[in-house]
Design a protein that fits this description.
329 residues, alpha/beta, TIM Barrel, nine-stranded parallel β-sheet, two-stranded antiparallel sheet, 12 helices
């Protein structure tokens, strides 16, 4: 029987906030330093998109974070542009970032989404001349190439979109191999979507990142992933990460927390989110209410929960979450 793991918590910086007026570069760097000094926080994360939802570039920001922190792990939540970037260049950049951070990176592969929340999805793929239908295989090849080049030298690869021989990526990363988590949020009403998405996690992932799920959805999905992994002869060990991309707004006036979170997220994603979705996607209200919501997900099997602060006073929310929520979790 596997032992219950102590959950870890990550701070998600809103790097699209420099465009929509939520935060500044210096504020994000400062909050990352605060998280680095407080062991309640295990990791710091940034969002990723190129032109669909413009923001400060994820790799550039992670490089700055690597220089300004010493302890926390660093990663994208999630790397939505994985199929859009040149896979070999991305592997080279990520190996360099891992060296710069002294082996603190986690790559989270993602293929973007055409659904609400995905921004100008079609225009982004069109601008880069990439067929959206190819995005799944492009993402898989990027995962395979990053795993191969980060752990071996003089490697060959023959894929549908990428081919090379005798390649050694320099400088070498500290972590060999680099940990790679895979994002999957399939439509649970579609059996084919569920099977393909979760089988991909089971086949390729050192971890799984998801969002927008209820605790029960998360528990059922994790059981499916474990079952698929066992079928493939790759049973998942106790070190397999289950990461929930989540949001938080601490305010004893829950109605005010809801209103601020809705304004923040509607603006961030250019979506008019339904109240029932936000009530599931955001821990909001008093510290006790937020703790109760977060514990429901850790009880369901989440091993890492990343928290984005859905408030316009980011520093105030950071202090409240750290001192009144994280301290008790």
């Amino acid at each position: 029987m596997s032992k219950r793991r102590v959950p870890k918590f990550g701070l998600t910086l809103p790097n699209r906030g420099v465009i929509i007026g939520v935060t500044t570069v210096e504020e994000m760097l400062q909050m990352a330093e605060w998280a680095d000094r407080d062991e309640a926080w295990d990791s710091v994360w940034v969002g990723d998109s190129l032109f669909a939802k413009p923001r400060l570039d994820a790799i550039a920001l992670l490089g700055a974070l690597a220089a300004r922190t010493r302890r926390v792990r660093l990663g994208p939540a999630c790397f939505a542009s994985t199929p859009l970037r040149d896979a070999l260049t991305l592997a080279y950049q990520w190996c360099s970032l891992d060296l710069m951070s002294n082996g603190r990176t986690i790559f989270v592969a993602c293929k973007g989404q055409p659904e609400p929340g995905g921004g100008l999805f079609d225009r982004e793929f069109g601008l880069l001349g990439i067929d959206p239908k190819s995005r799944t295989r492009r993402m898989e090849e990027a995962i395979e190439i990053m795993r191969l080049t980060s752990s071996r030298e003089k490697v060959d690869y023959e894929g549908r979109y990428n081919r090379f021989k005798g390649l050694t990526v320099l400088p070498r990363p500290v972590q060999q191999p680099i940990p790679i988590w895979v994002t999957a949020n399939p439509n649970t009403t579609s059996i084919p979507d569920v099977q393909t998405g979760y089988r991909r996690v089971a086949r390729l992932g050192d971890g799984w990142m998801t969002t927008g799920k209820t605790p029960e959805d998360l528990r059922r999905s994790l059981d499916l992933i474990k079952g698929f992994a066992t079928e493939m002869g790759r049973p998942l060990g106790d070190d397999f990460e289950v990461a929930l991309y989540y949001n938080i707004n601490v305010n004893e006036d829950r109605d005010a927390a809801f209103a601020e979170s809705k304004k923040f997220l509607d603006t961030y994603y250019t979506v008019n989110y339904a109240p029932e979705y936000l009530n599931n996607w955001v821990a909001m209200g008093s510290p006790a209410e937020c703790i109760e919501r977060i514990r429901a997900f850790t009880d369901a099997g989440a091993t890492t929960i990343t928290l984005r602060l859905t408030g316009y006073d980011q520093k105030k929310q950071f202090r409240r979450v750290t001192d009144e929520v994280m301290a008790k979790l």
